[in-house]
Structure formats: C-alpha cells, structure tokens
C-alpha cells in the first residue's frame, strides 16, 4: 500500500495497541501520526477510567501514547523502525469529529482505529461504534481493526 501519511487514532480503548501494530504492518513506509483523543470532562468516562478534573489529562494521554508506541516497538521483535519517527499528538473532544478534522488538517491518506468486534445485537443496541462514526465523518479511508475479545487476533474492516 502506498499511503504516505497514516493517522492512528488512540481513543483510550484496550484495542489501541492492535490498531498501532496493524498500521505499522500494513503501512510500513508511511509517516505515522498517533493521535491520542482526550474525551471532554462533561463525559462520564474517558480513556477507560473515571475522570478527575485535577488530572493533567493531556500529559497522561501523551505518556500513554508514548508507552504504547514503545510497547508495540518492543513486541515487534528487534524493534520496528517505522515507529522511530512517529509523531504523537493529543487533542480533546468527541473522537469522531476530532479524528476526522485532524486527518483533514494533516492531509492524511488513511485513518486506523481499534475497536471491539461486536455482535449484530450489540450493534443494534449500542450503535455502530466509534470506528463507523469516524468513517462517516472522514474524507479518507478508515481501517477499523476489530478485535474479538474471545480470540485476540485482529481483523481489518476498511470503511
């Protein structure tokens, strides 16, 4: 694949590592931009935990992204060279508009995001999910790395 710039959206889910690993596998020559999205304080939950207004949430999000990049680099064997020059950005807001807008500003060629593989019943009850919401707003292809919680092998869906 010849995507030049790939935006990897970290939305505070356990599947962020799968999305970053898949991006490095599928787009080894691309410039990777990792965007850690911080959910607004008016949301009851964010980044997989209860919110505290006293936390320096942007610094925590950047540290989580840096640690994630390092974990994915280490798990790729001798170290993944495509992660040496990764750019890390942090933005606050609802994931779908934030990710779509950042991709537009970066002139990204693709977005990669991790998601839980949901059943049709869950889709019906809970909605299509963040990946679909990002795809609805984005002007570039979105690869949703769906991870089945029972068997942790990711599968891609390009929307």
From TrEMBL:
Q: Where are the transmembrane segments?
A: none
Cite the CDD domains for this sequence.
Answer: USP-like (cd00293)
Q: Which Gene3D superfamilies match?
A: HUPs
Pinpoint the UspA domain residues. 5-145
Which Pfam family, just one, is annotated for this protein? Answer: Usp
Q: Which family does it belong to?
A: Belongs to the universal stress protein A family.
Xref: PANTHER family = STRESS RESPONSE PROTEIN NHAX (PTHR46268), UNIVERSAL STRESS PROTEIN UP12 (PTHR46268:SF6)
Q: What is this protein called?
A: UspA domain-containing protein
User: Which organism is this entry from?
Assistant: Natronoarchaeum mannanilyticum
What does the organism's lineage look like at the top?
Archaea, Methanobacteriati, Methanobacteriota, Stenosarchaea group, Halobacteria
């Amino acid at each position: 694949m010849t995507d030049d710039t790939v935006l990897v959206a970290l939305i505070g889910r356990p599947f962020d590592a799968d999305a970053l690993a898949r991006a490095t596998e599928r787009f080894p020559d691309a410039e990777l931009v990792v965007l850690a999205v911080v959910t607004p304080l008016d949301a009851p939950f964010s980044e997989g935990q209860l919110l505290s207004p006293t936390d320096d949430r942007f610094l925590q999000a950047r540290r989580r992204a840096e640690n994630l990049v390092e974990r994915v680099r280490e798990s790729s064997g001798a170290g993944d060279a495509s992660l040496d020059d990764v750019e890390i950005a942090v933005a606050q807001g609802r994931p779908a508009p934030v990710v779509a807008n950042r991709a537009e500003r970066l002139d990204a060629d693709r977005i990669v995001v991790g998601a839980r593989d949901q059943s049709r019943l869950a889709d019906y009850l809970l909605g299509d999910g963040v990946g679909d919401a990002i795809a609805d707003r984005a002007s570039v292809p979105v690869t949703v790395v769906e991870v089945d919680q029972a068997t942790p092998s990711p599968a891609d869906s390009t929307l």
